[in-house]
Design goal:
Blueprint lengths: L1 E5 L3 H13 L3 E6 L2 H11 L3 E5 L9 H12 L5 E5 L4 H9 L5 E5 L6 H12 L3 E3 L1 H10 L10 H12 L3 H8 L3 H14 L10 H13 L4
């Protein structure tokens, strides 16, 4: 894959370059500040962008802003953003801009090489990849929401869906059949009042409903 990387920490940046090139990917641009991101993305139009959320000069949300702007100019551009901390609003905003080909991982996940590369592949192929810690934080944040209607097993399935897992993987992780997974997903759609006929986007809608309902009171 052709990758644009944006990371201001020199040590992590070089580590990511080594990791990604060793995995057979091509680094078409590597930048270290917020203002450099969008021009690099527009010039190279990579297969996927890997962007730190907080970049110089402001160290606020420069990477996220660049990702959102780039996806407006290059519809469908796969973007995997990295963050030091759990910021559920970042994940919600990124997904709210169009939920295909997006990921949000904590930087600690980079050290788990197989998980990181798997998430990168999912995002590049149009899927979603949310960090399990982010998902867990979202799930425990909100009270008195439609999520309260879900059974513990349905919440487990929704959590794995939000991470971007497919039905086969969910069945393996929960040690249940794929038929059971499909049944639980159907219940989730029903309880969150999601359109049953929108088969192509039901999983994405479930993730978005999950994030939207998770916003609010800590």
């Amino acid at each position: 894959m052709r990758i644009v990387l944006a990371e201001d920490n020199a040590l992590l940046r070089e580590g990511l370059v080594l990791l990604l090139t060793s995995a057979g990917h091509e680094m078409v641009a590597v930048v270290g500040s917020g203002p450099e991101i969008l021009p690099a993305l527009l010039e190279h139009r990579p297969d996927v962008a890997v962007l730190d959320v907080r970049m110089p000069p402001g160290f606020r949300d420069e990477g996220l802003r660049a990702a959102l702007e780039a996806r407006e100019k290059i519809p469908g551009l796969p973007v995997l953003v990295l963050s030091q901390y759990v910021e559920e609003s970042y994940a919600a905003e990124l997904l709210g801009g169009g939920a295909s080909g997006v990921g949000y991982l904590l930087k600690d996940r980079v050290g788990r090489v197989d998980e990181f590369l798997d998430a990168l592949e999912r995002v590049a192929s149009g899927g979603t990849a949310l960090d399990p810690e982010v998902v867990t934080e979202l799930l425990t944040r909100r009270k008195d929401s439609p999520l309260d209607q879900l059974t513990p097993r349905e919440r487990e399935v929704l959590k794995l869906m939000a991470e971007g897992r497919d039905n086969t993987t969910i069945a393996t992780m929960l040690v249940i059949t794929e038929r059971s997974v499909s049944k639980h997903i159907g219940n989730v759609f029903l309880k969150l009042s999601l359109p049953p006929s929108d088969s192509g986007h039901r999983r994405v809608l479930a993730v978005l409903a999950y994030l939207n309902n998770a916003q609010g009171q800590p």
